[in-house]
Specification:
InterPro entries: DUF1996, WSC_carb-bd. Keywords: Signal. It comes from Beauveria bassiana (White muscardine disease fungus). This is WSC domain-containing protein. 6% of the residues lie in helices and 22% in strands. The protein is built from 5 helices and 32 strands. The protein has 2 domains: 468 residues, no CATH class; 133 residues, no CATH class. It starts with a helix and ends in a 12-residue tail after the last strand. A hairpin with a 2-residue loop joins strand 15 and strand 16. The strands form 8 sheets. A 7-stranded antiparallel beta sheet has the order 1-7-18-12-9-11-10, with no helix packed on it. Strands 23-24-31-26-27-25 form a 6-stranded antiparallel beta sheet, covered by helices on one side. It is mainly beta and 637 residues long. The protein is globular, with a radius of gyration of 24 Å.
Amino acid sequence: MKFTTAAALTAMLGVAASAKDKRTFAVLHFTNKQLTVARADPIVTPGKPSTHVHHVLGGNKFGLGSTGEDLKQSTCSTAKVKGDNSNYWFPSLYFKDPKSNNLESVELFYANVYYFFEATNDDIKAFPHGLQMLIGDPKLRTPPATGGKTNLDPSKGPVNPIKWTCPRKNIDQPGWPVNSKGLMAGIQDPVNKGEGVGFPDVECDGYASPLRADVHFPSCYNPEAGLTDYKNNMAWPQDNNGKADCPKGWIHVPHLFFEAYWNTPAFSGRWEQGKGQQPFVLANGDATGYSLHADFMSGWEEPLLQHIIDTCDTGTAGMEQCPGLFHGQNTEECTIESPVDEQATGTLTKLPGNNPLTGWSYGAGDGGNQPSPSESLSSSAAPAPSSSQSSAPASSAPASSAPASSAPVSSASTSSASESSAPASSAPASSVTDESTPPATDATSSSPATVQPTNPSESEPAPTSQVQTSQAPSSTVPGAPVRTDQCKPASVHTVYKTVTVTGSAPASTSTGGAEREVGGFKYAGCFKDASTRSLKGKIRPNIGAMSNEKCVAECKKLGFSAAGTEYGGQCYCGNELEGSERLDESACNVACEDNASSKCGGSWALSVYSETGEVSLKNSQRRRHMHDHMKRHSGRY
């Protein structure tokens, strides 16, 4: 069942059936880390290589010149919801080795796309097929006029929808220099210490939560501008008595929020923190992080997305849990070769596209006097000598008081204070500022290698709906041509031992806000979750807004003897904990979605209840036997 674009536009311009009084949302998860890694951008440079490398998610008909019509022909997609053949892409991240000066690709840990359906007087409609959006400014090397604060409402000043999140073990340790003006280092959000603009200058060492790129998209589409005029076809909604409304004649579409986690802990200890020399650079050569940007091309089956908009509020449990999905879920991995024949991952001597490093200590700080990147496929990405080989390939919005004007601000005009000539507009705000950026999410099936934090993060931002859930399936990094020197899998020998831990085992004597007894189950304590999940019997049953009572009741109904809540909104069932250990009660510090007076776990921390108040721990020690030609990794998340 498909709509034509004309039919969809006709339906979209109809009168809204009813006002929407509160935000609902669903998180789109992906089946593997990316579709490809490639110097391709069919929106900005259609038909030829892009100036820089992107990580791409979504349908497999992505290419140098792909259009909405091409996306319809996709035979697989990394999106978990079958029927979404859209493409989502953002610049890749690299690590510049301070000793060798080589560049090493950073692995994308995982990514999510939030679909927010805001409270509004408008009728929220599905994206028209082939809609193209770009947000952010690849040329930007200076801080936004808004500083480190968050604002998505142009009536309150310039909009900057770009941020970085840096979870830290100790929330009181700043991720950005105190009183930074953004000219030699990024700027911390004065409200949320875990967020800022520009790259942080310390390691993001929060438990299982590495450096995260955050990008918001506007949600007002101008049909007069058309699907492909990405510089003028989108604007931000504006607050109208607590609701986010679009200008008259514009179409209110979902508010997208990209979050991409990068495996920066893989480079821990290889650079000096807090010295104004942070080592990460975007694929366009930006050493500041200010030029973070993202693209979207809609390949949704429009009736399916409309059904999700109208009926789904699964939140962090995932869009794949929405009721009545027309075609079910995608479960297979989906990858394509890069359409550009060059090396884009691994260890390089130059960035693909010959992009010079710019910003802060590298100069060209205003982003205006950079050399034009080459589009050749020559030696720009030449591999570094094998002796320096690395196997670490990888991976919100400030405010202002400036007055608004009456003209809608397009997504292009809000992306760069330095290039914009359009004044701030009356295009309504998409959300209240303190709700615009979700908290750090957890991974469910894939983790960065090489680092094993011992403490859960205490730096997670206050959640919009308490929690994110993410599924980061294991996969190799696709995209660049297969190299003959790639490593083979290590053999793994696993030894198990089981112990029993009671609720009175050594730990904090406080329950940290968890009830002593719930639904006939007794509190056993706060325990670390594993990337493969410690309670495996039933993972995140779809039981709505979370409480310990709901989770215990569901696990009991399913016949399990233990229940655990995590990060305020997740439930896990089982009979024993695998690969876990007891944590201090302070790690289980996130309020339950459905009962704010109680705690439902924390970041990779489970509030565990069992029939007896005791729980069995099935621990494992892994010994990896590596071939001589492989780089040895140690530890795991």
